[in-house]
Structure formats: structure tokens, C-alpha cells
Amino acid sequence: MEALKQQVCAANLDLPRLGLVTHTWGNVSGIDRQTGLFVIKPSGVPYDALTPETMVVMDLEGNRVEGTLNPSSDTKTHLELYRAFPQIGGIVHTHSPYATAWAQAGRDIPCYGTTHADYFYGPVPCARMLTQAELDLDYEKSTGLVIAELFRERKLDPVAVPGALCRCHGPFAWGKDPAQAVYHASVLEECAKMAMWTLQLNPEAQPVPQYLLDKHYFRKHGPGAYYGQK
Amino acid sequence: MEALKQQVCAANLDLPRLGLVTHTWGNVSGIDRQTGLFVIKPSGVPYDALTPETMVVMDLEGNRVEGTLNPSSDTKTHLELYRAFPQIGGIVHTHSPYATAWAQAGRDIPCYGTTHADYFYGPVPCARMLTQAELDLDYEKSTGLVIAELFRERKLDPVAVPGALCRCHGPFAWGKDPAQAVYHASVLEECAKMAMWTLQLNPEAQPVPQYLLDKHYFRKHGPGAYYGQK
Amino acid sequence: MEALKQQVCAANLDLPRLGLVTHTWGNVSGIDRQTGLFVIKPSGVPYDALTPETMVVMDLEGNRVEGTLNPSSDTKTHLELYRAFPQIGGIVHTHSPYATAWAQAGRDIPCYGTTHADYFYGPVPCARMLTQAELDLDYEKSTGLVIAELFRERKLDPVAVPGALCRCHGPFAWGKDPAQAVYHASVLEECAKMAMWTLQLNPEAQPVPQYLLDKHYFRKHGPGAYYGQK
Amino acid sequence: MEALKQQVCAANLDLPRLGLVTHTWGNVSGIDRQTGLFVIKPSGVPYDALTPETMVVMDLEGNRVEGTLNPSSDTKTHLELYRAFPQIGGIVHTHSPYATAWAQAGRDIPCYGTTHADYFYGPVPCARMLTQAELDLDYEKSTGLVIAELFRERKLDPVAVPGALCRCHGPFAWGKDPAQAVYHASVLEECAKMAMWTLQLNPEAQPVPQYLLDKHYFRKHGPGAYYGQK
């Protein structure tokens, strides 16, 4: 658990370094699938005050198991995503501005190029708005459930599409561990930016053809991958 | 008063650090409601030359009570806002570029998402243009009066909507103290940016539904707030 | 002349610090009106290699009076502006991206707000394209002559409008000395940026009314000025 | 070969310094035309872990001649460009965001101004999309062949037009050596940015007239060049 706290703390500190957050507007968590416990940033604490000791440990029933600070106000969303997507090991939420603009516009981010195709196998989907009933019942829990519903209904694999937009809110991204979740959040922001500019230059721009999407995604993922060092 | 001078000086220094000002184009003030005196940046002095001793102390009749430098040329606007909004303790004016673009476009900034809803309970309103008569009489004083009129006519609570745009000019923001005023100025700029991009992606974008606005604003404000540490 | 060389060198070093140049794409000069000699950046030398000793001294007939390096390739443009505008003491040319985009679009930058009105008394004018004959005769000299023609034909005062755009090229700005010229170049870039965003938000945006332009400009300039410290 | 490794390593390190890459999304190579060997960045290695020793040496048949790491996944594209363009000595590939947006929009970057004309003699061309057959056969090799085809069909001189866009992918740029290739990549990005903004300000913007293109390009290139120090 100490190693995970260090990883989660380090991943949170990467958010301002990568330009993904303003003020305290972002949080990273990581889960230990063996114990079923996850570690998350405390709520509203500035990044430069974070240490592994300030991290909060939660179980998947939503109980604080360790730590004295309140966990991130988005904790229940993380929890529902860990439940819905057993393959993932880390989650990040930010209000990074380009991805948030797409979320506020209520649009999926189309896959316009290889930068996107290298990490997201298809568009970054935008979830529907919560109903008032869902929000009144439990806002943060419902946010996670609506993302899970989105992946279920569209038959998306959360490993192949490691992020989503929450309508009128902002992006969530995830990965096999906290560091990869943050990496995916930064890819998502960069692709959101370039997709917006692509549309400015060509409002009729088309997504990459399927064969290019397949090529780039599987060049980096799966048994035939040949990017990087083995 | 020395403590307030330090707070106001520190808040002014936050402006360049947060990327809210170019050159000397911004100023922060703070008020001591007990004595009715407020402290404000001197006019045209570069931020790196500011010290608590260079701050200017004014009374609400517009007399300089302490300090040898001229106060900010916007001093009368600050003064009128302190008179009109007795709940506030700090004010900031900048020409931060995204908020200024909305002011120059003469448009309210709609509340398109939760980033905005967390701090501004509804659109950031844009005040009307001053008439020539108002300007000739007293430009800076009239600027403050027109913002006060805007809040009166639209029945806005300056605590729930801690900022406004001056038509063809730029933003003013405020808060319970100088530090919070600067925080709100930076939120306003970030939301102005994301709202512009939202419109580029979806010219028909709609503001958040009322229930989402309520949820986010009251998650952080009022008796039921649960964001951050208590 | 040594003092002027230092001023011109320092002003050139301000260009990268203010984010106005990429690579070596900008140059500043300053003139000593008593001797009629002006000092200018050497051509193609990186900013971090500039020292006062590397500056080149020219007379207004275009002869190199001092220095061993070639002067900026834009030297003849500076020369013609010094001849046409005897009130000015420093000139800067950059390819700063927002101002250059307006120049490439072939449009004056309208005065949409007080940031602009504080320093430029009206739109930043865009000069016409050089004819092929003008270009073949002497490109850099003609560039200066076309700017001078623009101010003559539109009856503009180069002190009140301290800059212009060269069609398909980029901005020139000037001032009473090299430091003020650079300050005006940075104002021009900031206003070019905000004016572009203003148009995105409101394609029908109108320039500020004349009485607001007068107020802001004369608040900072002329006998009734009251901005800053005396 | 050691000198070339150092040059290639240094040129790779310039990519993040010039803001041209996010994460590991860019690579530079350089060729020794006498031996026919080229040096290229290893695949997926972070820039701050690069040293001359980690560089990979390849021959033009695609064999690794020196080095223990895998070469960049784009190596075959570099190889085909070295074969097709015998005049060039260095190549760079990035996903720099403005150039990538043009590539994703599938548009040539028009020459709207002198910044562009100083380095690219005409538009930056956008190559066609690879067919599925080309991609299946050999994606990276085909990418190089399609760029070569583009220059052949449009009768472009790769020295006068030192870069191109790969449809739905991003830019390649080149030069006489690795350092100049990186310089051209940064010019390409800056011009891509300004061209996008030019179109926002004037959707009917026209490229520079031929005589201005000639003037600027030949002011810096060829026997009559007079920019910089001899």
C-alpha cells in the first residue's frame, strides 16, 4: 500500500507538470486489485502540499480505510469506474481545457489522426447528461455509472478506449496504473486540441480510415506491437 | 493595516504568476471593513517593484490616507464596488485576454460547465457601455456604478457571482479577501477560455441545466458544502 | 553612442523575453537625432550572442559608420521610417504571430477595447502590398516608404498610432526610444490576439465609441494624463 | 560517425526545447552520405535519457549497423526519404500540433506571408492518404514513398520545399543536416499556426504574390542571398 501511495502521489504531481490542471482541479487514484483498496488524492489540497502520507485509502464500498483527510469529492466516481472496469488500475480526472471544451460542447472527439489512433482505438466518447433524479440520488456515483453505461451501450473496451468525457463537466482517463492513466489524460488533451483545430481548418474533416486506425493502434498494442523497446 | 498591505501586495504579485497580466495591466485591492479603509496597488508600478510599503491606503471618500504614490487609476471603480457590495473584501481588475475578448464582444459568459458552476452561480454578466455623459462626469466612478446597476437590475448576488465584464474594457472580480478575488479572476479567465472553445465546437451549445448548476455551486458553497477539508 | 548601443542591445534582448520572436525573427534599432546616426541589430545573429559591441551603427544615408557585422536585412526600412517620422526614436520589427496573422489577412486591427485605446489612438493600420516595381527597385526601402505613405494618406500621427502592419509580412512598431518601441510591439501583439478572439465571439463586434477612445488615450497621454506616477 | 551521433542526439534534444514534441512523439535522424549510414533516435526513449551512445546507426538497406536499441518506428520512412532526396542530410518527424491539424484537415499550408516564404518556396504540401494495400505491405516504407511521389508529381524541389504533411498523421521536415531539419520543423509549425489564424481572420486570404515569394526566398537562398553574415 505504501508503494501505491507513492505512485498515486507522484501521478498527482504530474498533473500540474504536464499542464493538465489549474489550481486543485484534478485528481488521480490507483487501485490494488488484490486487496480491493484504492488510494486517492485528498480533496482540495494544493499539489505542492501533497505527500504519500496525505493520500487517502478507500475500499470499494466507499469506506475510508486509512488517512485523516477527506478524499477527493470525485471519489465515488472513481469507485464506480473501478467496479465497472476490472481491467484498469489507475484513474485520473481533470478539467484540462480542450477536453473540457469538447465535454461542454457535448461532442465525441473524433479520431482524426495517428496521434489519437496510437492510444485511443476510436473516438473519445462523450457521456450523456445526468438526469436530475440521478444527480439528486448521488451525483458522483451516478457520474461513474453513466460512464459505465456509455461503454456498455456502445460496446467499448475500456482498455482500448482509455477515457471518456462527462457532458458539461470534463474528462476522465484511466490505464493499467496511475502513471499510465495520467499519460492517457495528456494524450486526450493533446488530441482534443488538435481535433478542434482540425475542424477549424476543415469543418468536413473525416476520421481516419479503419485500416489506419487498426495499424496505428496495433503497432503499439497487443501481440504484434513493435513500438518502443521490448 | 500592515497585515492587509501584505495581503494586497501578495495578491498583486499573484497576478503575473497566474498569467493574468501583461506589463502593469492589473490591480488588486483589499478592504478593512472595521475602519472602512482599503489598500490598493500604486498606479503603473511594475509588479517586481511592489512591496507592502508601496501600497496606497484610501478611505471610502476617495482620500489617500497613507502612502506617497498615486493609487491605481481604477481606484474609484474599486471604491464604488466596495460601497455597493458590502459583503466583499477584495477586488481585482485585469485585462486577462480571454475575459477581455468576451468584454470586447459585449457578451455574458454562459455557464457551460461545472468548472464555471463551481464558482459562479450563473453567467458572468457583461455591463452596458457607459454613456458619454457618465464618462465625462467621472469615468472610473461611473464604471463602478454601472457594475452595481447591473447587479441591481438583474438581481444578482455579488457573493454568488463574484465578477463581471466591463464592456469594451475587461473583467473585474472580487471575493471575501484579496486572495479569493484573485482566485476568482483566474477562474473567470479559465472559464472564458473554455467557453470560447465550446462555442467554436458547438455554436448551439447550451448552458448547464439548472439542477447541475445548483449541485455544483452548493457542493462548494453554503451549509451543505462537502468539497475540500473542513 | 555607447549608451544607445546598450539601449538597443537591451531592447533586442527583450524580444525573446516578451515572447515576441522565434529564432532571429525580429530586430530593434534606436536613433540619436543629434548626430543622425542609428544603431541596429546585426543580421541573423541569435539573441543570446548579442552584446552592445555587436550592434551596427548606420547613418541616414545607409552607410555603416561603426561595427563589423552586416546590419539587419530590414535596415533600409528602419531608415525610411526614421526619415518619415522625425518624432520617433526607436523602431522594432517582429513576426509576432497574432499581429502577423492580421498582416497576412490584410486587415487593420480595429480598436475593440481600452487595452488598445490606452496605446494606439485608433486602429493599427495595414499597409498595402508593394507593387512588383517597388519590390524590384528596393524591397526594404519601399517597405518603409509604403508605411510612410499609409500614414500620410490616412493623416495618421505616428506618435498616436505607434505601429503598423506590412501586408503579408508582419508588424513594425516604434516609440520615443528603443524600449518604448518594444513595449508598443508587445501591446500590438496582445491587442491583435484579443481582437481575433473578439471577432470569434462576435463577428459583428464594433470598435469602441470615439468618446471612450479619447478618454483612454488621453488618460495616459498629453497634458491631462493621470495614469502612473509623475 | 561519432560526430554525427552527437549532432543527431543534440537535434533530438532540441525538439522538446522548441516545443515541438509531447512525450516521445518525434525523432530526428542524420546521414553520412559518404558511408551511406544514417543515425536515428531509438524508439520510445524519453528525450532526457538520450545520449550519443543510445543513437542507432542504420544502413540504407534497413540493417542496424551499430547500437543495441530498436531504432525509431519511423525509421523506414526516413530511409525512403534519404533515398528519394539525395540532397538532404537530416530528417525530423514530429506531431507538432498546428502542423498536425493541417495534416488531419488534409490541406496544404498556403504561403500567406514572408515568414513562410523565407524558408519554404511555396505551400507546404500534404501527401495523399496511403491505400490499405500500401499500408498492409509496409506502412512506414510506404509513408516515405508517398512523400517522394508527392514531390515527383508536383515537380517540387526538396531543397526549396524542406517539408511535407502526411495525411492524418503529421509533418516531416528535412534539411542539409539534422540541425537545419529541426529548424525547418519549427518554421513549419510557426507558419502552420499563423496560417490557421490568417484563415480565421480572412477566410478568403490569398497566398503572397509570386514576386514577393521569389524576393523573400532568394533573399535568404542562392547566389544573391544577403540575409545574415557571410
TrEMBL record, chains A, B, C, D:
Enzyme Commission number(s) of this protein: 5.1.3.4
CDD domains: Aldolase_II (cd00398)
Domain Class II aldolase/adducin N-terminal residues, every copy: 6-196
Keyword Ribosomal protein among record annotations: no
Alphabetized UniProt keyword annotations: Isomerase, Metal-binding, Zinc
Pfam family, one: Aldolase_II
Top-level taxonomic group: Bacteria
Top-rank EC class of the record's enzyme: isomerase
Residue spans crossing the bilayer: none
Gene3D superfamilies reported in the protein's UniProt record: Class II aldolase/adducin N-terminal domain
Reaction equations catalysed: L-ribulose 5-phosphate = D-xylulose 5-phosphate
Family to which the UniProt record says this protein belongs: Belongs to the aldolase class II family. AraD/FucA subfamily.
Protein name: L-ribulose-5-phosphate 4-epimerase
Lineage: Bacteria, Bacillati, Bacillota, Clostridia, Eubacteriales
